[in-house]
Amino acid sequence: MSLRSSVARLLKQRAGSTLRAQRRPAHSVALIGAPFSRGQKKGGVDHGPGAIREAGLASKLSRMGTIKKSAKIGYLAYVQEVSVILKHHLTSCQVYDLGDLSFTQVPNDELYNNLVKYPRSVGLANQVLADTVNGAVAAGHSCVTIGGDHSLALGSISGHTRHYPHLCVIWVDAHADINTPLTSLSGNLHGQPVSFLLRELQDKVPQLPGFSWLKPCLSQSDIVYIGLRDVDPAEHYILKKYGIQYFSMRDIDRLGIQKVMERTFDHLLGRGQRPIHLSFDIDAFDPTLAPSTGTPVLGGLTYREGMYISEEIHNTGLLSALDLVEVNPLLGVSQEEVTATTNLAVDVIATCFGQTREGAHIVFDDLPTPSSPDESDSEEQVRI
Ligand SMILES: [Mn+2]
């Protein structure tokens, strides 16, 4: 199915129309694969969406599906259905998988300023992604973009802000990705997306070929970083000069992840609720947990810290779009490493949409009573 027709189909579907919320308002998730790798130089990150799908993302999100206690099924069948859902610790979540975007190769995509790589390819891919994310969010879905490299946040955040101009961003990453094209040492655009998005930096960012569609859409107070531990000197200067809130791994050591999340929400939501865009780079995790990624850095998030961040973001009820980027299945030294990384990515996404470690509490409409007609479905009296 072409992207255009799947987006058209998506737009026709009314988000959550068939859902019964068990715990929170019904939500539906639009899944977009963005197999894009030109924001950095290692091959394989374009296989990220495929690997994460293979790890069972869509089924994990939707398997719990909808619980309907229809007149046709007896209480036993209902309890069985609920137990399947509880086993996966998820609340109801309808998934619309839009498949993978296909990106046009831009010929003669020469370096900008003798350094910045593939500006036209990155610009065009993100223009397509921005339109797709905007369409999905406008149709009422939460939008999950699976990368691909982190230059994709240019498109996903731009498209998201087109519908929710007042949104805020939580950027979970080992790196700040806030170099400008003029401060970048590598020329890789996956290390620069935030500089293009921030209004305060616009007089420092040159116009790149392929980027004319892109407008800065965030202010310095709209973003919080979590997990930083490999920040270039120019990036550190930018973070300090513009007063951007960040929690490095050292801050997490000092405060604990619970305080870090409290302060993140105070900073972003203290003056009122607004949609959250979570941009999650898998390299925020320690390389022992997420080895299959292009720029691993020692001393990253533990599994528990990553899950806590995701749970807390889910608990706000404000998550509107999520990027999960930089999973590179060609970089594992063994299949186990690749599987560990893709499973971790799936856990982050599922947790952001309601998977819990303590188990889900399903709200029953009513408990069976001796006079309930459901109980008479079964010959045997069942005590629950
Ligand atoms: Mn990143």
Measured distance between first and last alpha carbons = 46 Å
Number of strands: 8
Number of separate helices: 12
Which percent range fits the helix content? Answer: 25-40%
Give structural notes.
α5 packs parallel to α6 (153-163), α9 crosses α10 and α11 packs parallel to α12 (335-352). The relative contact order is 0.16. With 384 residues, this protein is α/β, with parallel strands linked by helices. β4, α7 (193-197) and β5 form a beta-alpha-beta unit. The chain is built from 12 helices and 8 strands. The longest helix has 20 residues, at 119-138. The chain has an 8-stranded parallel sheet, sandwiched between helices. It has one domain (3-383): Ureohydrolase domain (Arginase, Chain A), CATH 3.40.800.10. Bound molecules: manganese (II) ion. Manganese (II) ion (MN) binds at residues 150, 173, 175, 177, 281.
